[in-house]
Write a structure and sequence with these properties.
By secondary structure, the chain is mainly alpha-helical. It is built from ten helices and no strands. α4 runs parallel beside α7 and α5 crosses α10.
């Protein structure tokens, strides 16, 4: 009797989830350069051949984990105009803070691993793209290359504040952190935008 496509797809999803979870756990214990495919396969309770059927390398798994974590971040943030509303931003930061403090989540694991800096850099690019596409009018974006600098400045600052908040063990309320981010973004982006439209 032939298996249905949905049954096979569920097996693939379950196997990949198991591999990612195993790697996430191993990444909390040691540097990624010290983790082998065999280590992950053993922890995921699959054989090495099964691992290699789904991923070309450990870094391919990390890349998929980062993609999933960044998609969760985008979903949580929603519209980038949230950075101009400290109350909404506070709520979003509470949700992101919960994701970051969950050591079993891919998001939390990546922030605690040796690939953290690379992941934070990808977060900055994700936020920069979101700000650029959601909050800056296309005619303003096209009229000045310097607007990209302002967007990068704000997104880098947001990630830096968020990173500092994580490193402090989430000291300070999400409301305080949101207020700092909102003020930072407002003065940089709205001030820059008003200069462009004069």
């Amino acid at each position: 009797m032939a298996r249905s496509a949905s049954h096979i797809d569920m097996r693939v999803i379950k196997t990949k989830r198991s591999i990612r979870s195993a790697l996430a756990h191993l990444m909390t214990q040691r540097d990624i350069s010290l983790i082998s495919v065999s280590d992950v396969a053993h922890a995921a309770m699959v054989n090495k051949k099964t691992f290699l059927a789904h991923y070309a390398s450990i870094y391919a798994v990390v890349e998929e984990m980062e993609g999933s974590a960044l998609a969760s971040l985008k979903d949580t943030v929603g519209s980038a105009d949230v950075i101009f509303d400290s109350e909404r931003l506070g709520e979003v930061l509470c949700q992101i803070g919960a994701m970051a403090s969950d050591t079993t989540s891919e998001f939390g694991c990546l922030l605690r691993s040796r690939v953290r800096d690379e992941f934070l850099s990808k977060m900055r690019v994700c936020i920069s793209d979101k700000i650029g596409s959601d909050t800056i009018d296309s005619h303003i974006r096209a009229s000045s290359k310097r607007v990209g600098y302002a967007i990068d400045f704000v997104s880098g600052g947001i990630v830096s504040i968020f990173s500092r908040w994580i490193d402090s063990g989430f000291k300070g309320s999400a409301t305080d952190v949101a207020s700092a981010m909102e003020s930072f973004a407002r003065s940089a982006l709205i001030g820059y935008r008003s200069q462009l439209v004069k």
